[in-house]
Amino acid sequence: MATVQTTYAGASRSSELLANLKRAGDTYLMYVGGEWIAASDGGTRDLINPANGQKIAAVSEGTAQDADRAIQAAHDAFYEGPWGDSLAQDRAKLLFRLAERIDENADELSRIETLNNGKPLRETQYDMADAANCFRYYAGLATKPSGQTFEVPAASQTMVVREPIGVCGQIIPWNYPLLMAAWKLAPALAAGNTCVLKPSELTPLTALRLATWIEELEFPKGVVNIVLGAGPIVGHALAASHLVDKIAFTGGTKTGRAIMQAAVGNLKKISLELGGKSPNIVFADADFDTAVDYALYGIFANAGQVCSAGSRLLVEESIAKKFVGAVVDRAKKIRVGDGFDPQTEMGPIISRAHEEKIESYIKTGLAEGATLECGGHRPEGLEEKGNFIEPTIFSHTKPGMKIVQEEIFGPVLVVQTFKDEKDAIRLANDTIYGLAGGVFTNDIAKAHRVIRKLRAGITWINTYHPTYNEAPWGGYKQSGIGRELGTYGFEAYTEVKQINVNLAVEPSGWFST
Ligand code: NDP
Questions:
Q1: 394: left (phi > 0), else alpha (psi -120 to 50), else beta?
Q2: Which of 90, 166, 366, 438 might form a disulfide with 464, Cβ 3.0–4.6 angstroms?
Q3: What is the arithmetic mean of pLDDT over 67-92?
Q4: Residue 180: which H helix or E strand, with range?
Q5: Average pLDDT over residues 260-287
């Protein structure tokens, strides 16, 4: 049984925490075309604190009409407003200032995030710093050279320049609300695009706070629009609109497929960052304590609600019993509770519906004949209305089991064992996903051999999870299309134009006069 934290009374301070957000009456508003608006049909949605089931606030629940209004505003700002012709230096200046606002208000922001998403404060504090750094990184990149010139077999000067794509629809999930907003907005704005961002209906609050600074810093109206509402309505409207030039999405693979289908009408550019079932491979010669530590961090950080989670632990047979025993012992000690409690190491699951989905996977694992080493239940003593699941580990699994193949997106680790390097690689690649993977070994040549054989876009040797704004993020196979972050993430928000300049200005003579 995991150690349990008593519920902390953080939720009672929600109105104070949200004092800087814009509202009409009791309803928090969306930011569209430089104005704070309610839903066109007056609809609202109650946000629920996942740690205790209490209502945090009501937000406007946007409609397809509201999405269209935001798209039109972004379209006008790009094609008719000043942003389409803006200078990179000016865009950089605004993005640097936005990063400063995040840093200056990091305490408030991280508390709003913990209230809305549930994850421990130490995680949201880290996320806020990371979000500020993302804006800062792309502010810097905005002004760096990105063109090329070519020697061509003619009296011609041939150049390549990068230009913004236009209007970008951006749909983000609930597991890193502000950080995902930063990953989407920062490169798009740095490159000169305009944006319509749709946060998850469950976690819109930090994006709304960000919008208050976008207004204060005088980003031109319509450059950034934050429209709220349900994915199948507002998200779908963004994906399907012919006025949207690019759609960027982070979320589940099934939703990614729906978005790709909706986007086909005007063949808009598309970036998809989807799910994973990532292998964390531990060889017998690895540093034992380090590998145990990262096995836990890989799956139980953010309660496993991480696309790149190391949700499959692949252990060399010769150390499997001792290694799994050590991981299980430590998993049982993880302190589960309210994210506002400083003792909490693992917070709640985002919603009751998602908790039930995870529980159904745990039942499936048992029915499939896997051995439940620890967890599998709601921890005792926690707020009954909160959504919590103990750190859960299954061993004695088989490659074909559902719990081995499907993304659970919760604190559930499945253990697989392997005989040798070849066996490890075969098992590691045996899913439809290809997002991430880790290898623990003291044999550096073996580490590199295995990493190069992993069909995955993000990999680690003797660590798991660190992510940097400088390096590209994205997956192979059904884990996505394209890359975010780094220069790759910037280029994904640009069109490439070649310009040929004739240096011998005279008729071509191709046709007779
Ligand atoms: P979704 O993929 O459904 O949600 C992600 C975002 O997409 C949200 O903003 C959502 O809106 C929006 N969305 C939902 N349906 C559509 C649609 N038809 N068209 C356009 N946008 C849409 O994730 P869930 O929250 O439902 O989680 C389901 C599974 O997805 C998880 O169990 C997990 O496996 C995976 N997931 C992966 C993530 C990742 O980082 N790769 C992040 C989150 C989930 P809204 O929710 O507001 O309706």
A1: beta
A2: 438
A3: 96
A4: helix 177-190
A5: 98
- What residues are paired with 160 via a beta bridge? 148, 498
Pocket of ligand 1, candidates 127, 206, 249, 255: which has the most ligand atoms within 8 Å of its Cβ, to mutate?
255
At a CB cut-off of 8 Å and minimum separation 6, what does 452 contact?
none
The answer to whether residue 2 scores a pLDDT higher than 70 is no
Residues 343 and 447 reside in one and the same domain? yes
The domain tally of the chain equals 2
How many other CB atoms are found less than 10 A from the CB of residue 124? 29
Q: Check residue 315 and give its pLDDT.
A: 98
For residue 427 and ligand 1, the question of a CB distance below 6 A is answered with: no
Which domain does 234 fall in, by range? 11-274+479-497
Residue 51: name the closest of 300, 335, 350 by CA: 350
For residue 13, pLDDT over 80 is answered with no
List the CATH number of the domain containing 267.
Answer: 3.40.605.10
* Contact (CB, 8 A) for 195 and 185: yes
- What is the pLDDT confidence band of residue 6, given thresholds at 50, 70 and 90? very low
503 belongs to a structural domain: no
Q: Does the CB atom of residue 229 touch ligand 1 within 6 A?
A: no
Q: How much is the pLDDT for 290?
A: 98
In a domain, 347, yes or no: yes
Q: Are residues 345 and 252 in the same domain?
A: no
